[in-house]
Design brief:
This protein has 187 residues and is mainly α. It has one domain: Four Helix Bundle (Hemerythrin (Met), subunit A), CATH 1.20.120. The protein has six helices and no strands. The protein starts with a helix and ends in a 5-residue tail after the last helix.
Length: 187
């Protein structure tokens, strides 16, 4: 059952991002800016597909890639809790973001600086939600390849956050600097 929750978590995250992108596109807002400022972003999709395969293979009995490091039901339930918390935080962040939601950096049409809702407890609730979900999935499916994904994902999230912070300082100036003094980078 927990493995189905891991697969559902990945599926929901993708559906939520795409549905929000389509909602805003109908309002004339271009949301997807993936790879426009950093072409290395295009290295991510093949690795994302491998992640999806490992999780779905584990949940649905497909041929597996990589070996599991341990099996512990309690740890699996902790993973389920982290996945649920990740999805809920992600939803809260999407709602809080409103029309300012973007995938990638958009310096031409950034939207308003959002500092309320989920953004009043973390400057990066979406990355925090992804991190919770990724760690949760690893705890459910403790595959050694997923462990590499956890460390790599956290490193990539931090890299992207640092790039975004530079961009946000340039766009919003002192308003963003003051916000950074009040609110933590992560949870």
């Amino acid at each position: 059952m927990a493995r189905y929750i891991a697969a559902t978590t990945l599926f929901l995250l993708v559906i939520l991002v795409l549905s929000r992108a389509f909602q805003l596109k109908r309002l004339g807002i271009k949301v997807i800016h993936f790879g426009e400022l950093d072409k290395k972003d295009f290295l991510i999709p093949p690795f994302a597909l491998l992640l999806f395969y490992i999780v779905f293979a584990s949940a649905f009995g497909l041929p597996k890639v990589g070996a599991e490091l341990f099996h512990n039901e309690f740890v699996g339930f902790l993973g389920v809790a982290m996945c649920v918390m990740g999805i809920l935080l992600f939803l809260y962040a999407l709602i809080s973001f409103g029309k300012s939601f973007r995938v990638g950096l958009d310096e031409d049409h950034p939207g308003e600086l959002v500092t309320t809702g989920a953004f009043s407890i973390s400057r990066n609730p979406i990355y925090s939600a992804f991190g919770l979900a990724l760690i949760g999935i690893f705890l459910i499916i403790p595959n050694w390849i997923l462990l590499i994904y956890v460390f790599t994902g956290i490193w990539l999230f931090n890299r992207q956050i640092l790039l975004e912070e530079q961009s946000l300082k340039k766009i919003y100036g002192d308003k963003y600097t003051e916000y950074c003094k009040r609110v933590r980078r992560f949870l």
